[in-house]
Design goal:
mainly alpha, 2 domains, elongated, glycoprotein, transmembrane helix, Tetraspanin
């Protein structure tokens, strides 16, 4: 087996796997759209409250379609030895890599502003919408329960809020230790000193950064390998024609 044939086979098999994975993701999205109640039963409790409010079906279908199209283009380009499809596949992967790099750069550059930006969004929402908007309330309840935190910075984010005024000047149960024994009022909340959710989420993210970095490195390596294979096939075919 020559080098060209070997690369061609690898390219076909790799993109067939991508295509099948995309179909599986798309099928899961269709399942979530058609029978969301059954689909949500297999999702962990933390995501159950959040994703039940998000159109996870459409998200999965979109990702699945994109993966399937990319896999089909790469597979057909290699199998049919089509320079047009190979260069199209290469261009799509390059665009994806550029988008990922841009997102990473923006995240690094503006990471110092993250707390300010998030607080500007969270503070008014906790004051005006928590306890009133069901989606917003469920999202924060799920977050506070999962990370064992209270509000964005601490319990004072709820001081004078809609929830505070309409619940006998009490704070959400997550803001106090032993809320089933004592009412979660100012004294109990202050004594409990439950950490704000932003601090907890940052701590959780830092603990998982190695995993995230490993996944990102693996995805990047696969993308670079895919670009290298497609460009090799393209150059070989171009040289063969001349």
């Amino acid at each position: 087996m020559g080098c060209f044939t070997f690369v061609k086979v690898v390219m076909v098999v790799f993109n067939l796997l991508v295509c099948l994975a995309g179909m599986c993701v798309g099928a899961a999205g269709i399942w979530a759209t058609v029978d969301s109640d059954t689909f949500m039963k297999i999702i962990p409790p933390f995501t159950d409250q959040i994703w039940s409010r998000v159109n996870v079906g459409i998200f999965n279908i979109t990702i699945g379609v994109v993966m399937t199209l990319i896999g089909m283009i790469g597979c057909c380009g290699a199998q049919k030895e089509s320079k047009c499809l190979l260069i199209m596949f290469f261009a799509i992967i390059v665009i994806i890599c550029i988008a990922e790099a841009a997102a990473a750069i923006v995240t690094l550059v503006y990471s110092s502003y993250t707390r300010i930006i998030l607080r500007a969004w969270a503070a008014p929402g906790l004051k005006n919408n928590y306890g009133k908007d069901q989606i917003f309330t469920d999202l924060w309840n799920s977050t506070m329960t999962t990370f064992q935190c209270c509000g964005f910075s601490n319990y004072t984010d709820f001081s004078g809020s809609y929830y505070y005024q309409h619940n006998g000047q009490l704070y959400p149960p997550s803001c106090c230790s032993g809320p089933e024994l004592f009412p979660c009022d100012d004294d109990n909340a202050g004594f409990s000193s439950v950490t704000g959710c932003f601090t907890q989420i940052v701590y959780f993210t830092q603990r998982k950064v190695n995993i995230v970095g490993g996944i990102a490195a693996g995805v990047t390596a696969i993308e670079i390998a895919a670009m290298g294979l497609s460009m090799y096939l393209y150059c070989y075919l171009d040289k063969k024609e001349t």
